[in-house]
Design a protein that fits this description.
CATH topology of the largest domain in chain A: Aminopeptidase
CATH architecture of the largest domain in chain A: 3-Layer(aba) Sandwich
Order of helices and strands of chain B: HHEEEEEEEHEHEEEHEHEEHEHEEH
Radius of gyration of chain A: 21 Å
Number of helices of chain B: 9
CATH superfamily of the largest domain in chain B: Zn peptidases
CATH class of the largest domain in chain B: Alpha Beta
Structural class of chain B: alpha+beta
Number of strands of chain A: 17
Number of strands of chain B: 17
Order of helices and strands of chain A: HHEEEEEEEEHEEEHEHEEHEEEH
Helix content of chain A: 10-25%
Oligomer: heterodimer
Shape of chain A: globular
Distance between the termini of chain A: 32 Å
CATH topology of the largest domain in chain B: Aminopeptidase
Strand order of the largest sheet of chain B: 1-2-12-3-13-16-14-15
CATH superfamily of the largest domain in chain A: Zn peptidases
Largest sheet of chain A: 8 strands, mixed
Helix content of chain B: 25-40%
Number of helices of chain A: 7
Largest interface: A-B, 65 and 66 residues
Shape of chain B: globular
Strand content of chain B: 25-35%
Structural class of chain A: alpha+beta
Strand content of chain A: 25-35%
CATH architecture of the largest domain in chain B: 3-Layer(aba) Sandwich
Largest sheet of chain B: 8 strands, mixed
Strand order of the largest sheet of chain A: 1-2-12-3-13-16-14-15
């Protein structure tokens, strides 16, 4: 888990469908052992990894990256070994027919999402989730013996593929790549006197529980790290501007996050030549940064996002250069705020 | 069944028109068993095994698979593509692919398209058209991608070979590497058991079935067979909520014998002979119950003066995708049926 790729692999191989985050508890504990002093698992299933400050009364920084990923749950076990499923989070049915999945029962079971051959389709419409089946190749009784129940989580099959230019492709990078970036920030703040709480938050994809962690820890600053859709040709020259992969973190400007602090962040990035891009989110960031600013008497919050392609699929792509520069920008900004006494 | 061989053939790179890699594997496996090897400009690879009689039986399986062809590159380093053969739009988004670029260097890639977050309400209900998808190999500019990939370069799905459940197999290109693998096994078996077949056998590993079956035409011209047995992989839908009459065949119930498909009406006397052979040898098979699909028989039966044909197909769920699924029992039943056919004295 020493480099980003190794860490990403350790984080994305366990399935953490929203609500089932604690399946990755061993990985979280290992992260704690390597880089932190303490780990808390709160009532909403968020994990807070805490690195204590050197001096009492030092500032508290909360870095939030969510731990959950989109997935599916078994809703019925049919004769012939097919499973009916329901989605957890927004999954595009266009990527499912067919695709490989892993059913997380007592043991991991391989499955393929079924597809009707085009020549047997009466209409060319996308199916609903309740029209899809998972083909396991086992009998119903065998599946039950293996511990498959209604509610058993299912994830996209884990494959990590390396592309050119240090770009990598896999599942669950939304938002585990930001946990990797968060760890990099912690490494870079090793000698800075502040308490760092890296929150691996739960259920971002279905309702968002991250604010609980802000409530429990009362931070002086919160940096939310999430992913953002990277630009594709079809979105070029439209008002829906998206960020270019490989061109650094996207800084979110919105009426939800801290306006002054965000301006400072942009100035800091410019003055110190950090690659960055700006996205105007208006009144909805679509991330945990929506909820954290209003906790208790208010938490100054900024949002940085890493460009990502094919979001919510088993083939999400990110650039490692973006991860590194996002971490360096975040760590540098925190250091400068502490130095200036700005928080 | 020889899993290792089928795996090797399944992961090999062989879209229609670019089957060399598959032909090389087959040549290494069985080339040395041939009494004669026939090749042609379309890339067919034909193994001849002398029989007791001059009469010629051709067994045929196609080496090509559905794939991609580079049609345009873009400022962001995206690669637009044509599909080579029929691939439904729903089987493309987010799938992994391999592209063979300049100097034959292979690149891993992924098919990108607009993510669900940025789709309009209308777009969310529809499949994304192929011309709004692109392959991403990680290149960040047009210059970079143009340096590595040329227009017209080929690609295929990137998918591993997995055994799962009770005897099921998932992979790409099982259509029709199962036919190729079965033919290799038959050639080996005949040689290892030192059998001289009744008829002179031609094992035709053909090209371009997915794009018009031109390989089968020239192979048939070269061989001029008296009888042809086509070994294929056919699309079935034995999944829940599909009406029984539309399932085509069922995985695990044996190889499917065709009576009629969209390219051929098989001669009844040939079908009767095939059924009698199966009964006689105790071979497990099923009848393909829906008129669907087509295969090399569609061209073979009307080439070189007309050829009596029969088709045996391994049923496959999710065909023409990166996750085709077959059952090993059906593979074994095709091997059994085709082996017995190749040694029979009654088919011609």
């Amino acid at each position: 888990m020493n480099d980003i790729k190794g860490l990403l692999s350790a984080l994305t191989s366990p399935v953490t469908v929203s609500g089932y985050e604690s399946i990755a508890e061993d990985t979280v504990n290992e992260l704690c052992r390597l880089y932190f002093d303490e780990v808390i698992n709160d009532g909403a299933n968020n994990y807070q990894l805490i690195k204590k400050a050197k001096t009492k009364g030092a500032k508290k920084i909360l870095i939030d990256a969510h731990m959950d990923e989109v997935g599916m749950l078994v809703s019925d076990i049919l004769d012939g070994g097919f499973l009916r499923v329901t989605n957890v989070g927004g999954i595009d049915c266009k990527i499912l027919q067919p695709c490989e999945v892993t059913i997380h029962a007592k043991e991991d079971i391989y499955g393929v999402v079924s597809a009707t051959p085009p020549h047997l389709m009466s209409k060319k419409e996308l199916p609903n989730f309740d029209e899809l089946f998972i083909d396991t190749g086992f009998k119903k009784e065998e599946l039950e013996e293996k511990g498959v129940r209604v509610g058993t989580p299912i994830s996209f099959k884990y494959h990590l593929t390396e592309l050119l230019n240090d770009r990598i492709c896999g599942k669950g990078f939304d938002d585990k790549i930001c946990i990797c970036a968060g760890i990099e920030v912690v490494k870079q703040l090793k000698d800075t006197d502040c308490e760092i709480i890296l929150q691996l938050s739960s259920r971002e994809e279905i309702g968002k529980s991250a604010a609980v962690g802000a409530y429990n820890t009362s931070p002086d600053l919160c940096v939310v790290l999430d992913v953002t859709g990277a630009e594709i040709p079809e979105e070029k020259d439209t008002i829906y501007k998206s960020s270019v992969m490989g061109s650094g973190a996207e800084i979110s400007v919105s009426a939800i996050t801290d306006v002054k602090l965000t301006k400072k962040l942009i100035k800091f990035a410019k003055d110190n030549d950090f690659p960055h891009q700006i996205n105007v989110d208006g009144t909805n960031t679509g991330t945990n940064a929506n909820d954290i600013p209003t906790i208790k008497c208010g938490v100054p919050t900024v949002l940085l996002s890493i460009p990502l392609l094919n979001m919510h699929t088993y083939a999400e792509i990110i650039s490692l250069a973006d991860v590194k520069s996002t971490a360096s920008l975040t760590a540098g900004f925190i250091k400068s705020l502490l130095k200036d006494g700005a928080i | 069944m020889n899993f290792k061989l089928l795996e090797k053939l399944s992961i090999a790179f062989g879209p229609s028109g670019c089957e060399d890699e598959v032909a090389d594997i087959i040549k290494n496996e069985v080339g040395h068993f041939a009494d004669e090897i026939i090749t042609d400009t379309l890339g067919n690879f034909i193994v001849k095994i002398n029989g007791k009689r001059e009469q010629k039986m051709m067994l045929s399986a196609h080496m090509d698979e559905v794939g991609f062809m580079v049609r345009k590159t873009d400022d962001l380093g995206c690669i637009y593509f044509h599909t080579v053969g029929s691939i439904s739009e729903g089987a493309l988004c987010a799938r992994r692919v391999t592209l063979k670029g300049n100097d034959g260097i292979k690149y891993k890639g992924v098919i990108d398209s607009k993510a669900i977050h940025s789709q309009t309400a209308k777009e969310r209900k529809e499949y994304i058209p192929t011309d709004k998808m692109h392959i991403n190999i990680g290149a960040s500019s047009k210059d970079e991608v143009d340096h590595l990939i040329s227009l017209g370069d080929f690609g295929v799905f990137d998918s591993d070979f997995v055994k799962f459940g009770n005897g099921f197999i998932k992979g790409k290109a099982l259509d029709d590497r199962v036919g190729c693998a079965v033919m290799c096994e038959i050639i080996k078996k005949i040689r290892e058991e030192k059998i001289t077949p009744e008829y002179t056998l031609y094992f035709a590993f053909t090209t371009r079935e997915e794009v018009g079956r031109s390989g089968a035409i020239t192979a048939t011209e070269a061989v001029k067979p008296d009888f042809a047995l086509i070994l294929e992989c056919t699309a079935v839908a034995d999944i829940p909520e599909t009406p029984a009459h539309k399932t085509v065949s069922k995985l695990g119930d044996g190889v499917a014998l065709s009576l009629m498909d969209h390219s051929t009406v098989y001669r009844r006397e040939v079908i009767e002979k095939m059924m009698a052979l199966a009964k006689n040898k105790g071979v497990k098979y099923q009848i393909k119950t829906l008129v669907s699909g087509g295969n090399d028989a569609g061209h073979i039966h009307k080439t070189a003066g007309g050829v009596r044909c029969a088709t045996l197909s391994v049923p496959s769920r999710y065909i023409h995708s990166d996750c085709s699924v077959i059952h090993e029992d059906d593979y074994n039943s095709m091997l059994d049926f085709a082996y017995n056919a190749s040694l029979s004295k009654e088919l011609i």
